[in-house]
Amino acid sequence: MRASCSVHGDYELTAFGFPECPECIRNRFKFPDGDDPKHSATGAAAACGFASYKSDQINSQAIFDHMKVNELDPSGCMILSHTDHKSFNAVSLEPCGRIPGSGISTTGDFACHLAILQDITGKSSKGPHWAYEDVSHFNDRLSKGEFVPAQRCAACATIPVYEMGAMCPACATKKT
What we know:
The chain has 176 residues and is α+β, with helices and mostly antiparallel strands. It contains five helices and nine strands; from the N terminus they run E-E-H-H-H-E-E-E-E-H-E-E-E-H. It has one domain (2-168). The strands form three sheets. It has a five-stranded antiparallel sheet with strand order 6-5-4-3-7, with helices on both faces. The protein has a two-stranded antiparallel sheet with strand order 1-2. A hairpin with a 4-residue loop joins strand 3 and strand 4.
């Protein structure tokens, strides 16, 4: 489905994409390309052994662009709500090593697998920012209910939305 942003123009909405204009999400970044220094290969997360850090080979801009879904490249992400932080997060459907242009090969070693764009609504002081996790750590968090799927549009039941009973931008436009 197509939706329109008054600032950035038309964009694609799908079940596996951002629930709003991707460029509006990008404009909420407070760190360059959304890269929180805490999640760098030498940052606090890596220093304490936490499984959420970025290899210095990862290109966050390429990952963000890959997570934006368009009709010709159905790559995407899944939108999850973090039950403790009450935030919305976009998790890449592909491991970082399989995302074209991300900077890592599919056969090389890399520090993490899944890219997670945390707080896509930008409600925290950090705004939308990246964390990276290996698949097993992420799956553990899913099974414990730390992440749950975002609500779906009340009209089309396909596009993720931020509030229960809300309509996606495409359906909301059709209704008016």
